[in-house]
Amino acid sequence: MNVRNEYIFWGYGLFPDKDGDFIKKKMGECTGEEILKEVLYHLPVDNKEYILGVSHCIPTEMPFITSQFNIREKYDRPKVIPDGAENFGFLGQYVEIKDDVVFTVEYSVRSAMMAVYSLLGINKKVPPVYRGYLNPIIVWRAIKALLR
Ligand SMILES: Cc1cc2nc3c(=O)[nH]c(=O)nc-3n(C[C@H](O)[C@H](O)[C@H](O)COP(=O)(O)OP(=O)(O)OC[C@H]3O[C@@H](n4cnc5c(N)ncnc54)[C@H](O)[C@@H]3O)c2cc1C
Questions:
Q1: Whether residue 108 has its Cβ less than 6 Å from ligand 1
Q2: How far is the CA of 103 from the centre of ligand 1 (A)?
Q3: If both were cysteines, with which of 19, 32, 63, 69 could 57 make a disulfide (CB 3.0 to 4.6 Å apart)?
């Protein structure tokens, strides 16, 4: 197998309960081939049949993937180090980190840094959360992207 000639394409379907524009089935009822067909028919590519013939499309349902974005109150998630805790902390996507955004590796790593540095008394700084919304250039780019 020559991996240099292999490509991986990863995509998300946000509306699995709606019929496709080309394949008149819900995404959850489609085979991998049908999902790939739907995607390809939307794209301006010439060699669709060739791509279909040499590709494997493996559908995966992740029903809880958006649970991380559920609306929450301030105290729904534990702090990395709960008040008074001395020998344990919480890590991962379901802890509360001020100003940070979930669904990133960075979030989990930051929680681990916060817990380990603090509980073990390591004198290192946790990298600050990137706050793009305070940067006018980023805000301007975001507005342009929204209006495209
Ligand atoms: C499809 C998809 C695309 C993503 N894309 C990006 C991206 O582009 N950029 C980005 O930054 N983030 C992305 N993420 C998010 C990122 O992958 C996660 O936020 C990150 O992996 C979480 O790391 P974690 O170590 O907290 O948890 P996990 O990586 O989920 O690790 C938890 C581990 O604990 C194990 N485990 C669970 N229960 C037990 C148990 N009872 N006993 C022992 N072990 C257990 C699990 O098997 C797993 O190995 C993506 C996630 C998904 C699903």
A1: yes
A2: 9
A3: 32
